[in-house]
Structure formats: C-alpha cells, structure tokens
Specification:
Layout: E1 9-18, E2 21-31, E3 36-40, H1 47-55, E4 62-67, E5 70-71, E6 82-85, H2 97-107, H3 112-125, H4 141-153, E7 159-163, H5 171-188, E8 191-196, H6 199-205, E9 208-213, E10 216-221, H7 223-228, H8 233-238, E11 243-251, E12 254-257, E13 260-263, E14 273-279, E15 285-287, E16 294-303, E17 308-313, E18 319-324, E19 333-337, E20 344-347, H9 352-363
Parallel strand pairs: 3-8, 3-9, 6-7, 7-8
Antiparallel strand pairs: 1-2, 1-4, 4-5, 9-10, 11-12, 11-14, 12-13, 14-20, 15-19, 16-17, 16-19, 17-18
Helix pairs in contact: 2-3, 2-4, 3-4
The chain binds adenosine-5'-triphosphate (ATP).
Pfam families: ABC_tran, TOBE_2
EC number: 7.6.2.11
Protein name: Spermidine/putrescine import ATP-binding protein PotA
C-alpha cells in the first residue's frame, strides 16, 4: 500500500566506488511523490551514478535504496516503477516512432490493442500524435527527444529519471522544452528527477534542487533558498553570479568587509570569525562615489541586452560584478549601496546540517 507521508524514493548512506575511486560519498536524499527535483553539479560529480543507482543499472557499494518504503537494492531494473530518459535518447533507428515508444510494452507481453492505445496516448502527451509512422531518421532532434520521453512515460512510471535530456538541443528549443517538461510533470503528477549541470535550467524548473560536487550533496532546497542562502563558496559560485568577498563577523548581525562594518541579517558565528560575504550583482545599486557604502573603480563593462555588466575593484583589489541598467565610465570611482538583507554571510566550513540548525535558531529573531 502506498503511504502519502513517506517519500517515494529515499537513499540512505549511498556510497559507490570503482576500484579505489570513491564516486558517491554517503548520499542521503528523499524525493516526495509528485515533485520536480534536480541534481545539479559539474561534469563528473556523480549525478548520473545516482540516477543509475535508483534505476537499478548500478549497484551501490554501501547504503540502501528505498522505493515507497521498501528496500529495492536487489530488485532488477525492469521490475522497478522507474523509467529513464537518457542523454543520447537511445532510440532504435530501425524502428519507427510508434514502435520505439511501444517497445517496452511489447517486452512485457502487453496485448496489441492496449499497446496501440497507450502509445497513442503517450505520443499525444508529448505533442507527437501524428508522428507514429515516421522513421527516427525523419524527425528532428527535438522530436527525438520527445519520443524518448514518450517511451519512458508509456510505462507509467511513478518516478521519471531524466539524464541531461535537453543538452543536445539548441538554446531556443531547450527553453521551450523546459516549459514543456515542467508542464508535463505538473499534469501527470509523477516525480521527476532531472539531471543537469546548467544552473539556470535547475533554478527555472525545479521544486527542489540538490547541489552536488565531488560525489557529495552539498545543499538541498528550493531554488529560492539555494540562491538566497548558499551554504558555502562552491554553491554560491555555482548558482548564479556572485561577489564573494572575505570578511569578519564582528558580532551577531554585524559584519566587516573591505575595512568597513555593515549591518546584516546573519548571526550565530563566533565574534571575529573569518567568513565570506555573498552579494549578488543585481542587488548592488550604483550611486555617486561620495554616497556609496563602498567605493569601487570601474574596470570594464559589457552590454548584456537588458543590463550592463560592470566589473569594478575596491581598494583591497576585490573584484565586484555589478548589474546596472545604466552604463558607468571606465576608470572612474562609483559608489555601491545595498540593503542589509542582501548581504549573505557564509561560515568557511559549515555542513548543511549545522547551517540549517543555525538558521532555525536565529531565523525568528
Ligand atoms: N563504470 C565506471 N567505471 C569507472 N568509473 C566510472 C564508471 N562510471 C562512472 N565513473 C566515474 O564516476 C564519476 C562520476 O560519473 P557520473 O557519470 O556519475 O558523473 P556526472 O555528474 O553525471 O557527469 P556528467 O555531467 O559529465 O554526465 C566520473 O569520474 C566517472 O568517470
């Protein structure tokens, strides 16, 4: 019996090694039914290995994989209620579109009439209702991608795993497919676990993101939480553009950087603890130099269409990235202002658990 209160997928203490190389290091994560999750991290950090462990294509060296409360480590891949959309789509070139989509059902010895009905439904879901008779070589890359999704959905999985499914598409089509996939997930109400190394894609599509590096999950949370409250330098740098400046926590709610003290919204560090400050480029406002909280000298700028990206340096030679609707003059000093709540202070070596506990303690103050 399915129990709505427990996660549909749970990984506990998953480790994976190939020889003496540890690829996954103590992975713990929970996926609730009906949500869109993303594993985000640089190439080689272990994202695909997590998908393969859930799908049953790779055995974990240690740890448990749960599906709906049951340990499924020993369950063969074809008996898991999980399907995968692979990066290269892995379509069969000698079968037409409908045959590709119906292939898994045929293997399961489903009756022909039911196969036809389910294939047609799956093709309609991805807007390819009239494409069943086409050869794979006669459809575009974006359409092949939809066939791969239809082929996974036709099996009626409870969880759909998507391994960088949009990486072969051009920028425009990729954006369209982001909307479509998000819409599809919401309409079907099944759990998606999506893999990407593209932070914009992760922020746009996900209910929750797990940021990974080097075989570990560094931080999990909603896109807004992770963008506003990254736990460390890696996450702040990987998610969006950031100014990351060394500083010192003078006391609760007071931080020092570039030789000045500022009011901030962070607390729970030791007095005078060395920290890092995150200020996002879009949270900085340019004012005349004598009115700025900080003074920086403009080094260069690029016009990015809807804003100017300005690179400037302070007296400590920290680089500052500023997004402004107005251009600045290269070589001249400008003032920067920002609100206390736009300053995000990070401890240098804080675990996600310690970060969460600190946030909980000080959040309501
Ligand atoms: N069968 C294998 N044998 C040995 N090493 C492997 C094997 N499969 C994966 N690896 C290694 O495990 C690490 C993680 O690979 P994985 O494919 O999970 O990364 P990823 O984050 O999905 O990367 P990408 O974004 O490039 O697909 C890599 O260093 C890879 O070389």
């Amino acid at each position: 019996m399915s129990d709505n209160t427990q996660p549909i997928i749970r990984l506990t203490n998953i480790c994976k090694s190939y020889g003496d190389q540890q690829i996954l290091k103590d992975i713990n994560l929970e996926l609730e039914a009906g949500k869109f999750y993303t594993l985000l991290g640089p190439s080689g950090c272990g994202k695909t290995t997590i998908l393969r462990t859930i799908a049953g294509f790779t055995d974990a060296t240690a740890g448990q994989v749960y599906f709906d409360g049951q340990v499924i480590n020993e369950l063969p891949a074809n008996q898991r209620q999980v399907n995968t959309v692979f990066q290269d789509y892995a379509l069969f070139p000698h079968l037409n579109v409908a045959e590709n989509v119906g292939f898994g059902l045929k293997l399961h010895k489903i009756a022909k009439a039911e196969i036809e009905e389910r294939v047609q439904k799956a093709l309609a879901l991805v807007q390819l209702a009239d494409f069943g008779d086409r050869e794979i070589s006669e459809i575009s890359g974006g359409q092949q991608q939809r066939v791969a999704i239809a082929r996974a959905l036709v099996m009626q999985p409870k969880v759909l795993l998507l391994d960088e499914p949009l990486s072969a598409l051009d920028a425009k089509l990729r954006k369209d497919m982001q909307y479509e996939l998000r819409d599809l997930q919401q309409r079907l109400g099944i759990t998606f676990l999506f893999v990407t190394h593209d932070q914009e894609e992760a922020l746009a599509m996900s209910d929750e993101i797990f940021v990974m590096n080097n075989g570990q999950i560094l931080q999990g949370g909603t896109p807004v939480d992770i963008y506003d409250e990254p736990i460390n330098h890696f996450v702040a740098n990987f998610i969006g553009e950031s100014n990351i400046i060394p500083g010192k926590m003078r006391k609760d709610y007071t931080v020092e950087f570039v030789g000045k003290t500022f009011e901030c919204a962070d607390a729970g560090m030791r007095p005078n603890e060395a920290v890092e400050i995150v200020l996002r480029p879009e949270d900085l406002d340019i004012v005349p130099a004598d009115q700025g909280k900080l003074v920086v000298t403009v080094d260069s700028q690029l016009f990015r269409g809807n804003y100017f990206e300005i690179v400037a340096y302070d007296n400590d030679q920290n680089e500052w990235l500023v997004h402004s609707t107005n251009p600045a003059d290269e070589g001249t000093p400008i003032g920067l202002t920002f609100d206390p709540q736009d300053i995000h202070v990070m401890r240098l070596h804080e675990t996600e658990a310690a970060f969460d506990a600190r946030l909980e303690q000080y959040e309501d103050d």
